[in-house]
Structures are given as C-alpha cells and as structure tokens.
Amino acid sequence: MTYKYLGSREEKTRYEYKVAEILRVVDGDTVDLAIDLGFYLLKQERIRVADIDAPESRTRDLAEKKLGLEAKDFVQQQLETAAEIIIRTEKIDKYGRYLGWLYLDGAEISLNEQMIHDGYAWSYDGGRKTKNLGELEQRRRALGTWREGS
Known about the structure:
The chain is α+β, with helices and mostly antiparallel strands. It contains 4 helices and 7 strands, in the order αββββαββαβα.
C-alpha cells in the first residue's frame, strides 16, 4: 500500500522554531505548545497539525471516539518521549491556529506523516473530509498497533 503525502514541506515552510514545552494535546490533530522564539521569549500557541485529519475524540460515535482517543494518546506519547521538537509553520488557518509540521529528534519524516503512515490519521488537503474508520483500522492491524476493545 502506498501513502499520499501532500507536497514538499520545504516548499511550504516559512518559519521554524523549537518547542519549549508541550502544554496540552487537545486531540489527534491539535496541540497547545510553548514555542521558543529566541532571546528567552516563549509564545503559547494552538497548533493545527497540518495536512492530516484525525478521528474526533469528542463525538457520540463510539467507534470514531475510540480511534480519536488512540490518536490523541499516540501524539501525547510521541511528544512526551521526544528530546527535541521542531515546528515548521507557514500560515494561520480559518480558526486562528497555526498550521504546523512537527519534527521529533531530527527525524526526516514529520509526526504528521507518521500519523498517516501508522493509521492514526487521514491525509487532508483542506477540502472535503473523508472519514473511513475501516481504513485506519486496516492500516493499524497491518502494522500490529491495533488495540481491540474499549
């Protein structure tokens, strides 16, 4: 199976910062971060993880909620275990959040792309959202990361 990654990050990225602190993982595609602007200046920002759509963790659909909570847990675990987090950003979305690509410990692949590959999120280009929960389950079963129950 091949995965579609949207565009080159180098083409889109305008700004790059170190993350000083993870304040909160809101859900699988939104995080609150303290960003190091340099010169001992920190800025707290809500970041929309760019080019992905994770299942909702706050929904009445129990199947989607299960996957949404697992996506949130995956992001939390990845961020908490990283020694260094770099955020690359280009613009603000229609809700006032910066769109960002998160790179952990010097990795070439962003956390965004890793979430698509590992079955925690779908690729999203800003258009109509297509939520195929079975697709994520199938991908995670193939990788051996699927959790039964809950």
